[in-house]
Amino acid sequence: MKKTDVFQLLRNRQSQLLGYNQYKKSAVLIPLIDIDNKTHILFEVRSMTLRSQPGDICFPGGRMDATDESPKHTAIRETSEELGIEQNHVTDVIPLDYYVGEQRIIYPFIGTIKHPEQITPFSGEVAEIFTVPLDFFLTTKPKKYNVHFEVVPEENFPFDQIVGGKDYNWHVQHIEELF
User: Exposed, middle or buried: residue 85 (CB in 10 Å: 0-12, 13-18, 19+)?
Assistant: First the structure.
């Protein structure tokens, strides 16, 4: 193969995240509602019957379906399903910076829930909902904790093929958890 052949093959190629098709993709909505002329953020408590993260506090959202037009569509659809509201009651939806982590991409959005009095959470996924005034998050500094990951090579790992062998200086990662 010649250099010109390589360039011909790649000429109209669009770049993307390496391994993009193997990533699980989800979208969430940070829902804002007005209560007594103050802006609140709505949270969900996940149902204890769910396989993944039962009882966790979260925002409405979930995995992108093949029929979803976009991450934004996923966030609106999931919010509608979980809160039992019409999709057109989710307005002013704006994308935020997305997260790329261990085999997953999460697309967050912020938006407004019109007619919050009509919310009827789907009990199969949502145990309860609650709100917190936005001002709380603007005036309260979170506590930060690190969760460290340990490198554990499998038993037959070829240490003889890396610089330093068993003394290799692994880059140990951590994530920051906010409370």
Answer: buried
Task: Please give the structure tokens belonging to residue 82.
Answer: 């979980």
Residues 90, 79: Cα–Cα separation, whole Å:
8
Backbone angles phi, psi at 27, to 5 degrees: -140, 145
Report the 10 Å Cβ neighbour count for 77: 22
pTM: predicted TM-score of the whole model, two decimal places: 0.83
Helices (H), the chain: 3-10, 71-83, 134-139
DSSP 8-state assignment for residue 8: H
pLDDT digits (tens, 9 = 90+) for 88-121: 999 999 999 999 988 899 999 999 999 999 999 9
Amino acid 86 reads E
Please write down the HEC assignment for all residues of 60-100: CEEECCCCCCCHHHHHHHHHHHHHCCCHHHEEEEEECCCEE
- Residue with the two structure tokens 């509602």: 33
